[in-house]
Amino acid sequence: MWSLLVEPFLEYEFLRRALIEAIVLGLGFSIVGQVLITRRLSLIGDTLSHAMLPGVVVAFLLFGANAMALFWGGWITGFLILSASWFLFHRRRVEADAGLALFAVFSVSLGVLLAARTRTTTEILHLLFGNVLAIDQWILSMSVLVAAVTWMVFLWNYRSVLMALVDPVFFESVRPSSWWRVAFLLAIFSANLTVGFASLGAMMTVGLLIVPPLVGRALGRSLFGMVGYSALFSVLVSWVGVLISFHGEVPSGPAIVAVACAGLFLLQFLRLFRRARRVTA
Amino acid sequence: MRGALVVLFSLMLSFPAAAQVVTSFSILGDLASRLVPGDVRVVSLVKAGEDTHQHEGTAADLKELRKARLVFAVGAGFEPWLKKAHASSGSKGELILLTEGMELREPGHEDHAHPHQGPSHRHPHGGQDPHVWLDVAKTRAMVARMARALREAFPGQSAEISRKEKAYDLELNSLQEELKKQFSAVPADRRLVITSHDAFGYFGAAQGLRFLAPQGWSTEVEPSAKQVARLIRQIREHKVKALFVENLTNRRSIDQISGETGVKVGGTLYADSLSDSPGPAADYVQMMKHNARTILDALK
């Protein structure tokens, strides 16, 4: 049992790194994902993963396939899209998801035009996307930094976050946010997403952003409980997913996401079952 | 104004469109440009530095295909987008798949250290390795096939084409001899090389080297944790000295393996594309020489 579950991690550094990266990102995502789900923006990760194209193309043209440059390009693009759609949403002219879709698709079209004009290809986006089996020191440090800042902001503003989650409409009516504060939060959102793309790739980022927070919601009684369960769950599925990828010879990212989703389904099924028994008893 | 338009229009009509040959990617483009008669243009759809595996047919491709007298492609699943683009462009130029009738590497024929690895892991192309141009002998066969098709398409200039073919084949022949001589000096226990995607099978078969890669033939499929782990173990066991990245591939996996095993990355190899013009692999012969030099330096 030991040799099956633990030994691969002792023998190979790349497996250890995969696990550590998933844990670190899972911690940050457990907060960001919670907010996104409440705000009905669960698919924001998928949208932004395509919409970062123009920034990545510009970064590539200026600095070549430099991981740091691509990261900044993606981050800044994500931040601009989020800011523009928030601005529209805030003035109540457009719904949040429509605003986001608008600017995201605008951004993608700009990126494709830019790529065509400069004789690069849209496949450049794949230079930004990482793979959980190839986590280098730089992206690991960046992930720790982003997760730490996210948690600091969360703990500092615990009450506001709680209120914003429980009743966003009320929250905004009693407490108009200053623009720099919103900008800071959006920058953190964009950083979480970009660091996810750059380390785990788009699909796994979206998976870890949404599935563990859903589990947290199902199990947690308080906001801390939700975030805690969510972080714990992402650690567990990352570990199991990497092991399946190792023993079953399948790609790691999809394995982790599939395990996470299966875990969520199982949990919901058990809860349904228990509720049904309680009703009949 | 109207006069100017009439002049412009008649100019457009009278201007003889230069005959053109289209190739799927930069390496075939270079081969073709060595063969075609002087007044024929060669256009490569996938330019140097772009990935043919992941290309998608564009409107510009259709335009070029439509004007083509002949279209050259590797086949064997290397350009999955081309057939459709060729058909929908309404091109009258014949599409010639140069690997047709050629003996291709299959997953079962690979000399893997772990034979239990099923074939399902390595053939996103439909089971055959398309990277034939990395074996000079196979490139010479493709050049001969191209020249034959060109003579049929431009019968008036067949003497010129034959002359060019002969000169180029001589050049390729001496390249082949040179590579053979260089690699025969490599000791038997040092003939294991790691690259980022599994493109060098033909090169390895020709020079008696074994190539392993964390990624399959195509650049589309992610490796599993097991594949990466097996590679690391093989590098440790066989004391591999040579670890390379290719142009066009994400080098993160190779960097990770390099960090974990302490083997330095020996340089960049060119497999699926030439480099831009003032680069180390501006044409086919330079590309092969650059790859050979890079590998030999690391194996020393």
Topology:
The complex is a heterodimer of chains A (281) and B (300).
Chain A: H1 2-5, H2 7-11, H3 13-38, H4 44-51, H5 53-63, H6 67-90, H7 96-117, H8 125-128, H9 137-156, H10 158-166, H11 168-174, H12 179-200, H13 202-219, H14 223-248, H15 252-280
Chain B: H1 2-14, E1 20-25, H2 26-33, E2 41-46, H3 59-67, E3 68-73, H4 82-89, E4 94-97, H5 136-153, H6 158-184, E5 192-194, H7 201-207, E6 210-212, H8 225-237, E7 242-246, H9 252-261, E8 265-269, H10 284-299
Parallel strand pairs in B: 1-2, 1-3, 3-4, 5-6, 5-7, 7-8
Helix pairs in contact in B: 3-4, 5-6, 6-10, 8-9
Can you give keywords for this protein?
heterodimer; A: mainly alpha; ABC transporter involved in vitamin B12 uptake, BtuC; 15 helices; B: 300 residues; alpha/beta; Rossmann fold
Provide a compact summary of the structure.
The complex is a heterodimer of chains A (281) and B (300). Chain A is an all-alpha fold and 281 residues long. Chain A has 15 helices and no strands.
Task: Explain this structure.
The complex is a heterodimer of chains A (281) and B (300). Chain A is an all-alpha fold and 281 residues long. Chain A has a single domain (2-280), classed as ABC transporter involved in vitamin B12 uptake, BtuC (Orthogonal Bundle), CATH 1.10.3470. Chain A is 84% helix and 0% strand. Chain A is built from 15 helices and no strands. Chain A has helices at residues 2-5, 7-11, 13-38, 44-51, 53-63, 67-90, 96-117, 125-128, 137-156, 158-166, 168-174, 179-200, 202-219, 223-248, 252-280. In chain A, helix 4 (44-51) packs antiparallel against helix 13 and helix 12 (179-200) packs across helix 13. The model of chain A has no long low-confidence stretch (mean pLDDT 86). With 300 residues, chain B is α/β, with parallel strands linked by helices. Chain B has 2 domains: 11-101 and 129-168, Nitrogenase molybdenum iron protein domain (Rossmann fold, 3-Layer(aba) Sandwich), CATH 3.40.50; 185-299, 3-Layer(aba) Sandwich (Rossmann fold). A 4-stranded parallel beta sheet of chain B has the order 2-1-3-4, sandwiched between helices. In chain B, strand 7, helix 9 and strand 8 (265-269) form a beta-alpha-beta unit. In chain B, helix 8 packs across helix 9 (252-261). Classes of the chains: A mainly alpha (281), B alpha/beta (300). Chain A binds chain B through residues 8, 11-15, 17-18, 65, 116, 119, 121, 123, 126-127, 130-131, 133-136, 242, 245-254, and chain B through 47, 50-51, 54-55, 58, 117, 121, 221-229, 232, 250-253, 255-257, 259-260.
